[in-house]
Specification:
The structure holds three protein chains of three kinds. Chain A is mainly alpha-helical. Chain A has helices at 2-9, 13-33, 56-87, 94-113, 127-152, 159-180, 220-242, 244-254, 256-261, 266-291, 298-313, 318-338, 351-365; strands spanning 208-210, 217-219. At the A-B interface, α1, α6, α11 and α13 of A face α6, α10, α11 and α13 of B.
Chain lengths: 375, 360, 461
């Protein structure tokens, strides 16, 4: 029996080598092995744009797509991770908060601009983007506060019960969104719950700029998403490491009982963290609505993204959320672009498999995630 | 005489009566009730039983059971359907022998369950829940996007190809009902038996004291992996019954909605007792079928929204008021009666483990 | 045993009462001789907004041809009474509420056909739903299904049960002629296509590809984003750059139409409408209202109807709609209203001929031709082929100022097989099917110019 424990407790050399080989091959494939596609058909080496050596611009754009998507992921997932890290609450309603934020911001932008449904960026000023975002974050922050105070405060520590409660809340919020949003619909169409609606970036952001040295034109809006992600990360870091509240939060993460025994009001810290976490979900929704749109059903998608990111990165760690977002964003982007195109039947549709592979690789070696702590 | 015995007796009597009613199902109920309510309740009950088995005896609340059901359905669908005129167009359309396909579908799903279980075997409590939810969503997206296995559209006509010992269940729905009933009974007995074997006892021990069990020499991750594989096997049976019942399988059958529905079923029934699976499934489906009819199309009065708001509120109430569901409520009623009645304080099976009082 | 008696009796009593209640409800079934009809549509999901339109279309036909009285002229789903065909009364037993997915469609179909005991279904609304229901129909030969407005090919091609009828075109038929129009009008020779990776988009794209390649165009790249992708950047990046290609066929729907075009513009700058063509996703519903105004001049595929066509038959149809449901009449040219209307009308004609008998007799009596509104050729009659699928005129559109589409091309008598490209023994449309090959389609070179809603004799060059 003892040997068996060892065999299970410590991962042996063989899987390590296999995993390293797999990752190495994937990198090698992208950088050298892949070839540009022929006129018809193709084989295991042919991809849409060929390897990084064949077409380094496509490679650079794919990289940028991955990084910018990672920024977006981070905005949403950092809030999820913050709440989990401090309170051990898996907020299953995080995706619903994302959606709620997106819809609220949409409605406000519509009533501010009065331009109607097919709103163009050129008609939107900076304030007409920032104000809706601020309101959406505040409103959803308050919703989060209510949820925490009414449903989660009195059953601290009952993790599963809290997860079930947030599931119930997510079911209700998702249905209420269908019941009440969107309110601004184009003339001549039926007002219908949960329809897809999009926001517009302010005019100056929705352009393409030439990146220095490369000659690549890239969307400024996408770079802004990345910038916003980094800003959220930096601000959270400063908050957690340079302010008193942040120190209390970190102390609470380490030892909840001890912190409250020292006379710190841990409950108010919980409340603040929940407000911030929910507001981040809403902010992610605003970014999502501007980049694409919000529609009922996306709540589940964003719950999944948040889960994957924090499982990879490690629960409750800011650095983990960043690492998880980065890895997932890059895998997402490269899998879609660099899978072989052997004719039309294969293989870009296998992109989703790589999400699972990423998860499996991380969990096989670090069940607690890259930056998570055990227990 | 302890009152616990009285409770057991009552439960047995109810059980026998229900079994009798169930056995006479086709005589007592109309086609719609039999097919849509009862058969569905039986097969979802099986899936919920696999979830409750893991949670009650292993403290592992798995959200992957619906996905495993779907995987079994997809395996069967891809293997049995035939191409050509009158056949099907989605998926691999291999046209294999239905008996072989049936066995393979169950085996493959169980193996996938073991792999999932191996990866999750060192995650506990809420981490386990999150990880299994991730499995569920990935499985859903996988079958939704990999067009070779069917893609976003359903693989239909699966129940036209059944092994000869199963017979024509596409039109003879009473037959399917009895099969579901028999499988339910077997699964119930199997799980009850499983929990009494040395493996089952060790598994329950791991739930309560993983560290102590490990130091006693038990391979904790291995036990949890095997239990997950066993639960995947049960879920695969439910999955097979589901495609036979539904005729088709689509990615949406294993989406977030059905995944949460199964959890709701298990929670309504009670995460502490296997019987709760079928009770919860029956209650959920009846609510699902009849409440939807009196929700106005314009939405609910005052709050707006539709049917799901009601389901959400019911679920929320149950989790807040009686987190151990209907069976937990039943147990507590007896518990209270016993306390009122007098001294003998016999320990009732602990439900806390299932609700994870604190596992951090 | 010191068991208190009531503790045993109470649960047993509850069980007994419950059982009796169930049995008594289950045995009490109303049995007067009447035809029971269910209307299956979507009230949730991507097409949920068309719930009233679908019901309105179907019920307008019941009101006009079978004496039905709407309970509310504004809200068709309020119900309809007094429908009578010959001496038989027809009862609408319920409205199905789908969400554009097959599982829900089957669940609702069971509720309507088994729970509410409908004999006939008018519906469903979308492609995957129709595939699921056609398979369900195989096991219920006595029930009759008249598809409301669904675009998948399989229900009347590969599956084709004898009790399933469709009086409108499938998604490929709707796009017949579009490829030829952009080939001739805009001089496209090489084009790329981006489509959702599922059956409706494949079918829709199949019509475009067969037509464009048939006249001699080349599809140089096919890109398949999964339905409702969050970030389309990686997929639009796989498309050739605008200067390497004549144009793009855009077949991305669901919630993705606007998002994918946003991603395209972020990657390549503003798209010239002359380089963009697509299927009805670009103009239909709320998503279309968002997108269409941005691309005036782009050609798009139709919906089997002809918004703005001026013929006597169209006037009659629109007058009927206006008489019974003025609100829904505004969308009369939408396939949602129009196709449901035709389905219900065909049912009335079938019931007249079968003298109110349902089952096999009704199926034998269903009309083989129908004088439906927007049909022009064949003396204004839509014909059914041997697999009970409509052979129907198609009208292709161009987006005008403000996003309002107008008809520009008339494609006569489009059949489901495209003159042999598709067939019951061929694969259903998919990622690679049909391949891009030059071939003679029945309507090639016969597409006529439509000017101000009037079909001219001039052929599109």
């Amino acid at each position: 029996m003892a040997e068996r424990i060892r065999a299970w407790g410590v991962v042996g050399t063989v899987p390590r080598v296999a995993a390293a080989g797999l990752v190495g091959f994937a990198l090698l494939y992208i950088v050298v092995i892949a070839e540009p596609p022929p006129e018809i058909g193709g084989n295991w080496r042919t991809t849409s744009s060929g390897s990084a050596i064949d077409d380094w611009q496509s490679f650079a754009i794919t990289l940028l797509n991955g990084l910018t998507f990672a920024g977006w992921l981070f905005i949403v997932a950092s809030g999820f991770s913050l709440i989990f890290g401090l309170m051990r609450v898996v907020n299953m309603a995080h995706g619903s908060f994302y959606l709620l934020g997106g819809y609220i911001a949409y409605e406000i932008q519509q009533s501010m601009t009065g331009q109607g449904f097919s709103l163009q960026s050129s008609e939107v000023t900076t304030w007409e983007w920032v104000y809706p975002a601020l309101v959406a974050c505040s409103v959803v922050g308050v919703v989060g506060l209510i949820v925490q105070q009414v449903f989660l405060r009195w059953n601290m520590g009952q993790e599963l019960r809290q997860a079930l409660i947030t599931i119930a809340i997510s079911v209700i919020i998702a249905d209420q969104i269908i019941g009440h949003f969107p309110r601004h619909v184009p003339e001549g169409t039926v007002k219908f719950g949960g329809n897809a609606v999009g926001m517009a970036w302010p005019g100056w952001a929705n352009i393409r700029i030439e990146l220095p040295l490369t000659g690549i034109d890239y969307s400024l809006a996408r770079l802004i998403v990345l910038f916003l992600g980094v800003m959220v990360g930096v601000l959270l870091w400063l908050w957690l490491h340079r302010t008193r509240t942040g120190m209390v939060i970190r102390a609470g993460v380490d030892d909840r009982q001890m912190t409250s025994a020292l006379g710190v009001s841990i409950q108010s810290v919980f409340a603040i963290a929940f407000v911030v976490g929910s507001a981040l979900a809403a902010f992610g929704g605003v970014v999502g609505a501007s980049q694409g749109n919000v529609a009922s059903g996306q709540d589940g998608q964003w719950l999944l993204y948040s889960l994957v990111v924090v499982i990879i990165g490690g629960m409750g760690s800011l650095l983990g959320a960043a690492a998880g977002s980065l890895l997932y964003g890059l895998v997402f982007s490269f899998a879609a672009s660099y899978l072989p195109t052997t004719g039309n039947e294969c293989c870009t549709n296998y992109a989703i498999v790589f999400t699972f592979v990423l998860l499996a690789l991380v969990l096989a070696f670090r069940p607690q995630g890259l930056f998570g702590r055990i227990g | 005489m302890s009152r616990l015995d009285a409770k057991t007796t009552v439960e047995r009597v109810i059980g026998v009566v229900l079994l009798l009613v169930a056995a006479l199902g086709p005589q007592l109920f109309n086609d719609y009730w039999l097919d849509v309510i009862l058969t569905q309740a039986l097969l979802l009950g099986i899936a919920a039983a696999s979830l409750i088995f893991l949670s009650a005896y292993g403290g592992m609340v798995s959200l992957a059971q619906t996905a495993l059901m779907g995987i079994a359905g997809y395996m069967l669908g891809n293997m049995v359907t035939q191409s050509g005129p009158g056949g099907e167009s989605k998926g691999l359309v291999l046209g294999w022998d239905p008996t072989l396909a049936l066995v393979l579908a169950i085996v493959i799903t169980s193996v996938i369950g073991l792999i999932f279980g191996a990866l999750a075997s060192r995650s506990f409590g809420i981490y386990f829940l999150m990880l299994t939810l991730t499995y569920a969503v990935i499985a859903n997206l996988f079958f939704g996007s990999v067009t070779q296995f069917g893609g976003f559209s359903p693989i239909a006509g699966v129940n036209e190809y059944t092994p000869s010992f199963v017979g024509d269940i596409a039109t003879d729905r009473d037959r399917l009902y009895y099969i579901a009933l028999a499988v339910s009974a077997v699964v119930y007995v199997l799980i009850r038996y499983m929990t009494r074997t040395p493996f089952g006892i060790a598994f329950a021990g791991i739930r309560d004291e993983p560290v102590r069990m490990a130091s006693l020499g038990y391979a904790v991750p291995l036990h949890r992996m095997l239990a997950f594989g066993f639960a995947a096997f049960i879920a695969s049976l439910a999955g097979i019954l589901y495609v036979w019942w539904n005729g088709q399988i689509a990615p949406q059958d294993m989406g977030l909605g059905p995944t949460i529905d199964l959890l709701i079923i298990a929670v309504i029934g009670g995460l502490g007792r296997i019987e709760g699976a079928w009770i919860g499934a029956f209650a959920f489906i009846v609510i699902n079928n009849y409440v939807v009819n009196w929700v106005p199309t314009g939405g609910l009065p005052v709050v707006g929204g539709r049917f799901n708001t009601i389901i959400g509120l019911v679920f929320l109430t149950i989790v807040i008021v009686s987190p151990d569901g209907l069976t937990g409520l039943w147990d507590r009623i007896w518990d209270r009666a016993r306390r009122r009645g007098g001294p003998p304080q016999v320990e009732v099976e602990t439900r806390e483990a299932a609700m994870g009082t604190s596992s951090s | 045993m010191r068991v208190r008696r009531w503790k045993l009796v109470l649960p047993l009593g509850v069980v007994a009462i419950a059982a009796t209640a169930l049995v008594s409800t289950s045995l009490a079934a109303p049995e007067a001789r009447e035809v029971r009809v269910a209307i299956m549509t979507d009230c949730k999901g991507a097409f949920g907004a068309n719930y009233e339109n679908d019901i309105g279309g179907a019920q307008a036909a019941f009101a006009q041809y079978a004496g039905g009285k709407p309970k509310s002229k504004q809200k068709p789903s309020a119900g309809m009474t007094g429908i009578k065909v010959g001496g038989t009364s027809v009862k609408i037993v319920g409205y199905g509420c789908g969400d554009d997915t097959a599982p829900t469609a089957i669940k609702e179909t069971r509720r309507l056909m088994e729970g509410l005991k409908a004999d006939v279904m008018v519906g469903p609304l979308s492609g995957d739903e129709a595939v699921a229901i056609a398979n369900y129909a195989k096991g219920k030969p006595t029930k009759t299904f008249i598809i409301g407005t669904a675009a998948s090919q399989d229900p009347t091609m590969q599956i084709a049960p004898k009790n399933v009828f469709r009086y409108h075109g499938d998604g490929a038929q709707w796009n017949a002629g579009l490829g030829e129009i952009v080939y001739k009008r805009l001089g496209w020779r090489n084009a790329a296509i981006i489509m959702d990776d599922y059956s409706f988009a494949w079918t829709s794209a199949a019509g475009i590809i067969a037509d464009f390649c048939g006249i001699g165009g080349k599809i140089t790249k096919r890109v398949f984003p999964p339905l409702n992708t969050t970030d389309y950047a990686s997929y639009v990046q796989q498309l050739p750059k605008p200067d390497q290609i004549d144009g793009y066929f855009w077949v991305v729907g669901g919630t993705g139409t606007g998002v994918s075009l946003k991603a395209m513009e972020q990657a390549n700058g503003k798209i010239d409408p002359k380089q963009l063509a697509g299927n009805l996703f670009l103009i239909d519903g709320a998503a279309g209202k968002e997108v269409a105004p941005l691309y005036p001049g782009a050609y798009v595929g139709g919906f089997g109807s002809a918004p703005g066509l001026k013929t006597a038959q169209v006037k009659r149809y629109e007058a009927v709609m206006k008489k019974w449901y003025p609100t829904q009449a505004k969308a009369a040219a939408s396939g949602f209203v129009y196709n449901y209307y035709n389905a219900a009308w065909a049912l009335v004609l079938g019931l007249q001929k079968s003298a109110g008998v349902v089952g096999a007799k009704l199926q034998a009596s269903m009309p083989r031709t129908l004088a439906s509104g927007y049909q022009v050729s064949n003396k204004g009659l839509v014909k059914l082929d041997s697999r009970r699928q409509a052979i129907q005129d198609q009208f292709q559109l161009q987006i005008g100022k403000g996003g309002v589409p107008s008809i520009v091309g008339f494609v006569p008598n489009v059949d489901q097989t495209f003159g042999g490209v598709f067939g019951p023994n061929k694969p259903a449309p998919g990622r690679a099917f049909p391949p891009c090959t030059k071939r003679k389609l029945p309507w090639q070179g016969k597409i006529r110019v439509v000017k101000n809603g009037v079909v001219t004799n001039q052929v599109i060059k």
